[in-house]
Structure prediction request, 191 residues.
Amino acid sequence: MDDTLQNLALALFTVGLIHGSLVPRARHNANRQMREVFGSEGTLRTQVTPRGALGLLASDVWAIDVYGDHLRADRLPFYRVPKTGWKGSIRHLRLHLTDFTLKGLPVLRFDSDIPFATFDIGQAIWRDRLLIRDSGVGEGTVQVGAQGLRLFVLRKYERILSDVEVLARPERITLTGTARFLGLASRLRAS
Prediction:
């Protein structure tokens, strides 16, 4: 075999090996970031999809999907920290969380897709952290049950409402309670 062909084959093998080792590292970085927020309870799985055959070598990720179940946190795991420096890109940063607790409120399901996120390459390489530097505007959905809605209303309007009960049916949500206004209390019913 010609030396040039051998060197080319060796170079391609080396690049493929390096790229192959970056996928587990990126997955580990995202999992580590999530575990810092959610702790060790619950289940957590992260999937990293590079953009193209050598996307991770160019710090270009098509999607990071985070799946979690039965987690508990006081804040969401990713937030923007604007700063200059070398940045990689993530086309889709998606969270798929079920049956988790956020700031003491039970959430049945939370899904979000944060597009065009950039991350700090230095933090990813040297500190094993996925630090978001910027992002586009994405979509998110939150599904809560009757108990979660009741706790939310009690916290948000604790000075005005008390004895709140929530009844959720497919066609309507009914909220009852006691409302206080100017020192007077009266029954409240909203559908």
Q: What stands out?
A: Residues 74 and 103 are 4 Å apart (CA to CA). The first strand starts at residue 43 and ends at 50.
